[in-house]
Amino acid sequence: MLQEAGITIKGTRDGLTVLVPSEIPLADVFSTLREKFQKESAFFQDASLILDLGPRPFQEEEFQSLQELFQNAGISIKGILSDNPITKLMAKERGIPLLGSPSIMHSRVRVDHPIKRDRLSLPQKPAVSSQAPKEMPKPVAAMSKGGQALFVRKTLRAGQKIHFAGDVAILGDVNPGAEVVAGGSIMVFGALRGMAHAGAEGLREAVVAAIVLAPTQLRIADCIARAPEGRGETKVLPEIAKIQDGVIVIEKHM
Amino acid sequence: MGKVLVITSGKGGVGKTTATANLGAGLAMAGNKVVLIDTDIGLRNLDLVLGLENRIVFDLVDVVQGKCRSYKQAMIKDKRFESLFLIPASQSKDKEDVNPEQMRQLCNQLKEEFDYILIDCPAGIEHGFKNAVAGAHEAIVVTTPEVSAVRDADRIIGLLEASEKYNPRLILNRVRKEMVRKGQMMAIEDVQEILNIALLGIVPEDEAIVVSSNKGEPAVMDPGSKAGQAYRQIVERIQNPSLVYTPDLNGNGSFLTKLFKFFAKAEA
What we know:
The structure holds two protein chains of two kinds.
Chain A: E1 2-4, E2 7-12, E3 15-19, H1 26-39, H2 41-44, E4 48-54, H3 60-72, E5 76-82, H4 85-93, H5 102-106, E6 149-152, E7 161-164, E8 167-170, E9 179-182, E10 186-192, E11 195-198, E12 208-213, E13 217-220, E14 223-226, E15 239-244, E16 247-252
Parallel strand pairs in A: 3-4, 4-5, 6-8, 7-9, 8-10, 9-11, 10-12, 11-13
Antiparallel strand pairs in A: 1-2, 2-3, 12-15, 13-14, 15-16
Helix pairs in contact in A: 1-3
Chain B: E1 3-8, H1 16-29, E2 34-38, H2 46-49, H3 60-65, H4 71-74, E3 76-77, E4 84-87, H5 100-113, E5 116-120, H6 127-134, E6 138-143, H7 147-162, E7 169-175, H8 177-181, H9 188-194, E8 198-204, H10 207-215, H11 226-239, H12 255-267
Parallel strand pairs in B: 1-5, 1-6, 2-4, 2-5, 6-7, 7-8
Antiparallel strand pairs in B: 3-4
C-alpha cells in the first residue's frame, strides 16, 4: 500500500485502487496524482486503476480533468467506486464503469443543485434526493459488548502498554513509543502520539478519539492508518477516528 | 544523612558522565562531602573525565565482591577539592558482577558519611540501569534536544515513575540557542511536551567540555565556560530544592495544562 499526501493506492482483489479522501482539495489530488504517475511511469505503464472517490461529488469538469490526467499518463480507468449520487450519475454519463453493488449502479438521481464542498467536515447529506436514504449516523461512542471500561489516570510513556478487552479512557497523554490496545474504543483526554489499536478483536465500529490526535500509527480492527507526513505543530483540535467504507477516516469532533 | 542521586538517561552519549563529574565537583566546591560511583562496569569513563585514572587500585566490583576490606580502599580522593571522592567501575568485568542488592547496601553505608552520593548510570535499561537506581533516592534524567534521546528519556522516566521514589528532574544538555531560535533544534517546550518532569537546568553546547574532558578538569571549575556556569547553577538548585527554575519561556507544563489554558483563553 502506497500513501502520499493522503492519497492511498492499494491492491485489492479487483485490482489497483486509488483511494481519494474527501478532505483534500481536488487541485492537490490532481497534482499529487500527476506527480506520482510521472515519477513512477514505469510502474503505472498501461495500468488500469480503480478510483475510490468516496462521498466526493464530481462534476462534469472535474471528471473531464480526471480523465485527461489519466489519459496523459497512459493509464486507463477501470472503474469508479463512489457513494455520491452526483458522481455516479456523471460517471455513467461519461461512460465510466461504476463498480460496487448493483443497487448503487442503477439509482437514478436528479441533479437539482450542486453540493457545497466543505473540505473540513464529513460528507453532508446531499441536497439532492436519492433513492436510498442516507443512514442515521451510528452512535459515536461504540461500546464493546461486555461493558467494562478501563480508566487510566496517567500519561503513558514510551515502552508502556495497555491491553484491555473493553473500552479504554486515558486521562493524560500517550507518548510516542507507548501503545494502547483495546477490544473496544479508545479515548485519550490528552495527546495521542503513540500507537492506538481499537477494536483489536475485530470490532469495526470501535473508534479512537483524542484531544490531539497525532498518533504514530492508528489501527481499528484490521485497518491500519498512519499520520500524514509533516504534520507540523500540534493543534488543539479534538478529533475522532473511525472506519468508514473500509478505511479509517478522521473527523473533527465537536 | 546523605542523598543518593542517580544520573541516568537511557540514551548513550548525552552527557551523564560529564554531568556526574561536574555536579560532583560543583557540590564539593560548595563545601559538601561528595562521593561519585561509576556503575558503567566494563566501559568506565568517570575516572578519565576527572583525570583520576592512574590512581585506581580497587574498583566497585572489588568492593561488592569483598576483594578489598571496605569501600574506603577503593575510594579515590580528588586532591583538587576538599572532599570529592570517586569509586571507579571495573574496566574488565561486566555489569552482572554487581547486583542491585549490593548497590543498595553500599549506598546505605555511604549515606552515613557523605552529603551527596552521585551515581553515574550506564546507558540502557537492563542490568546496569537496575544496579544504578537500586540505592538511589532521586533521579536526574539527562537528555539532549533530539528525538531519539527524548524518546529514550521518556522510556527511562516511565521506568522510574513505576516506583514512586525517584522524583525525576530534567537536565537538557547540549542546547544550541541559535538552532533553537531558527527552529532547527527542539526547544525545551518541545522536550517537555513529551517528558513533562521538573526542570533542573539547561546546559548549552560548549567546546570547553571537550577540552575539559580530555584534560580531566571538570568545566565547572572554569569560570569562562558557559556549560560550567550552567552546572554551577544546577548545583545551587540541587542544594536548594525550593529554588524553582523558570527559564525565560512561555512556561512548560503538561499538555493538559496547556489545554486548559487554551480553553480559559477561549472563554475569556
